């Protein structure tokens, strides 16, 4: 049995974490995986979409195809899954035209209505699919996952002074922390010697805070994270950001780091204040969080708990069976892979939110 994944690139972060990470589970279930970048140009893409008929199932990741292209793919795909881990129906937070896009929303609605199953990276995205007309029975929340075995945990730093903060991401998302210049100036003043380790392809400058530049590399990112003491996340408070699936938070947790992040989107689901990190909503809260995590014992305790929750709720092992069943259509009760565990205790917000989304959709249908 063969699964075709149509993606931006086989090396793209979304493909690596949301598809290729499950390739061992697919093989164990008797499936092979082929990841192909969507062809450029009308004729090459036409041939590629028609070629989907050679596969037993197709997974389209993130891309919103023009109507004629989606119709060809739908006609040739025996089973079609649509996977998204971003609010692809919107423009990004920094677009001069604003986040809303009628064209993107139209393509999104066509895609989620036409797919056999929608794999949404969080409940916000699942609800967006439901609102666009996807069937509740065919809309699943499958979070972005991390394999914790690839992340070493180092003994908590015992050095004096403030904790060394660490941020990982792309140059586009770096704008989230760059927008908080006044906060960094204050933190540098209140915590002399404060350092921020930035793992990226470009590096900011902040008054009063030493930025430690670490060029990103897939081969070394896990070890580079483990050199820090506390992970940080800052994203804009808008719907584009609410579609984010918190990969950097999961990476911090896999490395056994507590996290400080603003209370937006997946941050609220993944971080429990006082247990795995803090969710400050103002500058005073950020200063208090750094002060609290200046204690190495507190960092170690929260880091251990963060890693434990990552392993049970957001690891590739925990979600392998659910992904394989959804992407391929096989019965997930087969013993080929371990069944997905019950996440009611570990992920209460996600489960409740998804149920509420489905109920909301049904209520709207009933009132129309």
Descriptive overview:
- The protein is an alpha/beta fold and 368 residues long.
- It has helices at residues 13-18, 23-28, 42-50, 67-76, 102-114, 123-131, 175-178, 181-190, 221-226, 239-242, 247-254, 266-270, 283-292, 296-313, 316-328, 348-367, and strands at 2-7, 32-37, 57-61, 80-84, 117-120, 139-141, 165-168, 195-200, 210-215, 230-233, 259-261, 277-278.
- The strands form two sheets. A six-stranded parallel β-sheet has the order 2-1-3-4-5-6, sandwiched between helices. Strands 9-8-7-10-11-12 form a six-stranded parallel β-sheet, sandwiched between helices.
- The chain is globular.
- The model is unreliable at 332-368 (pLDDT under 50).
Provide a short characterization of the protein structure.
The chain is an alpha/beta fold and 368 residues long. It has 16 helices and 12 strands. The model is unreliable at 332-368 (pLDDT under 50).
What's the total helix number? 16
Uncertain residue ranges:
332-368
How many strands appear in the DSSP assignment? 12
Distance between the termini: 42 Å
Look at the structure and give the mean pLDDT. 89
Q: What about the largest sheet?
A: 6 strands, parallel
Structural class comes to alpha/beta
- Overall shape: globular
The helix content, as a percent range, equals 40-55%
Q: What is the helix/strand order?
A: EHHEHEHEHEHEEHHEEHEHHEHEHHHH
Can you list the strand order of the major beta sheet? 2-1-3-4-5-6
Q: Give the C-alpha Rg.
A: 21 Å
Which band does the percent of strand residues land in? 5-15%
């Amino acid at each position: 049995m063969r699964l075709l994944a149509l993606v931006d690139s086989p090396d793209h972060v979304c493909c690596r974490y949301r598809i290729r990470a499950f390739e061992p589970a697919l093989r164990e279930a008797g499936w092979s995986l082929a990841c192909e970048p969507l062809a450029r140009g009308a004729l090459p893409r036409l041939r590629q979409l028609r070629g989907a008929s050679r596969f037993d199932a197709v997974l389209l990741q993130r891309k919103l195809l023009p109507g004629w292209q989606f119709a060809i793919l739908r006609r040739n795909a025996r089973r079609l899954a649509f996977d998204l881990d971003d609010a692809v129906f919107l423009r990004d937070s920094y677009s001069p035209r604003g986040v809303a896009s009628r064209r993107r929303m139209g393509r999104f609605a066509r895609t989620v209505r036409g797919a056999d199953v929608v794999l949404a990276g969080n409940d916000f995205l699942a609800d967006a699919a439901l609102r666009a007309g996807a069937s509740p029975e065919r809309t699943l929340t499958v979070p972005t996952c991390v394999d914790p075995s690839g992340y070493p945990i180092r003994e908590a730093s015992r050095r004096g002074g403030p904790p060394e903060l660490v941020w990982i991401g792309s140059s586009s998302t770096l704008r989230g922390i760059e927008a908080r210049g006044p906060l960094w100036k204050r933190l540098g003043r209140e915590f002399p010697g404060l350092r921020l380790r930035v793992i990226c392809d470009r590096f900011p400058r902040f008054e009063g805070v030493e930025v430690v530049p670490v060029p990103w590399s897939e081969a070394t990112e896990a070890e580079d994270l483990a050199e820090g003491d506390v992970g940080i996340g800052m994203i804009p408070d808008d719907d584009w950001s609410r579609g984010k699936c918190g990969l950097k938070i999961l990476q911090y947790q896999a490395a056994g780091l507590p996290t400080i992040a603003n209370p937006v989107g997946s941050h609220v689901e993944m971080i429990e204040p006082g247990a795995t990190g803090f969710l400050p909503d103002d500058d005073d809260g950020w200063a208090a969080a750094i002060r609290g995590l200046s204690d190495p014992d507190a960092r170690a305790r929260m880091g251990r708990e963060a890693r434990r929750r990552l392993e049970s709720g957001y690891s590739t092992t925990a979600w392998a069976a659910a992904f394989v069943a959804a992407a391929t259509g096989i019965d997930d009760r087969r013993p080929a892979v371990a069944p997905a565990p019950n996440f009611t205790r570990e992920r209460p917000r996600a489960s409740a939110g998804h149920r509420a989304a489905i109920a909301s959709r049904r209520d709207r249908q009933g009132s129309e």
